[in-house]
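Reagents: none. Just compute today. Calcineurin-like phosphoesterase domain-containing protein.
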Amino acid sequence: MGNNTMKKMLGFIIGSLVVGVLAWNYLGENKEKAAEPLMEKKQVEFWVVSDPHYINNNLTDSGSAYENIKRTAAGKELDYQEESWQAFIDKAIEQKPDMLILTGDLTLNGEKASAERLAELLKQLTDKGIKVFVIPGNHDINDGWARKFVGDKQEKTAAISIADFKEIFAENGYQNATSYDKSSLSYSVAVNPTYNFLFLDSNIYPDDNQPQTRPATGGMIRGKTMSWVKKQLEEGKQAKKKTLVFMHHNIYAHNKLLSSGFVLNNADKFKQLLVEYQVPVVFSGHIHAQDIMTEMIDNKQLTEIVSGSFSITPQSYGVIHLDGNLFSYRKNQNDVDTWAKENNITTPQVRNYKEYLRNSFIEDGKRLAYAQLIDSGMTDEAQMDIAADFVGKMNVRFFSGEDYSSDGVIEKLKQEKGYQIIAENSKFLKEYIDSIIQDKNEEDNRLKKEF
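Predicted 3D structure written out:
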């Protein structure tokens, strides 16, 4: 499709996902540790969160500038992140997973104050013996859109530099790393006698160390990083260990309209390296949609699990169990409602957070649908209401990973009046809905494998 149509389509799907990518000015010498595992036990449980887009409350005053950002935030929930994160942390402390892993876009737009506050929240976990590992996303470092919101104005606030990121999250991976890539923020961790984890920085950095005025979306595994990855995989192979990979950008196109800027620029080369060393699973984020996809490459299976954004409905996270050759994954939903009632929180939006989060996301999809329908020349408000409701419902299915349906179910959806109105009035919306209505690759919310 044409450049203008593609830009329009990507803007509709993700809205403000484009964000700051930055300059590279490496942090200094890294000293690698002996590859002693973090734990000796065979059975390991870890949780995965992606794209929380956390914003420090101190950067907002709920004025008109902040309200405008919320309206253009692609359905992200920004008002009650402190409460939802505390609910999640309390549940983790109760259930005691061995690790929590965050696969990028930790902050809204790379605000240093947001990263510092998120690190404070995560310290509650490390203080209880739960290891935390983070990697940056394209929104996190040297983002020229880092802002605080005062009344009707946006004011620049300190952005996260490369050095800041490693310092702020020192306890969240970098201090436990067994090897560092000297040309990126990538690192590896020896987890137990069976598994190594690779945490990869897939962001593209410019040649200076200043925040970008225009954020970028795309990613790649740079040449030096690729060589470092190969070295880590070879060492794991020699030690008869399995390797799992975690990064922000995707190796597969999980939607035919989400490719450029979302899939690694050099994905084919990187996938070849992974299958050469029989890496079974890659975890990523970036597109905000929950999705699992497996392909055969050189007669070997390679699975990618994309975690839905923690900032949108249903605020999900992955729970993974490793037991030797056995791997199991399931999607869980953060239960803020129960936490709020147990802690006597009276704010209605927090006590009914599940419904509030879902309705907010639906309304965001409806708003974008109205804009497209009006642009197509529609004037019948009742018809537009029906079509917009259908778009909101389909958005929830897609981004929640609930779109793995039979052909019969899809046929019924396409018979609904909302779909028929869209098909008759908006080529753009029909193409969008057709791209998200059915996932035929793999069920997206659970997975079991034996490696």
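Residues 350-436 form a domain with the Serum Albumin; Chain A, Domain 1 fold (CATH 1.10.246).
Action item: order primers for follow-up constructs.
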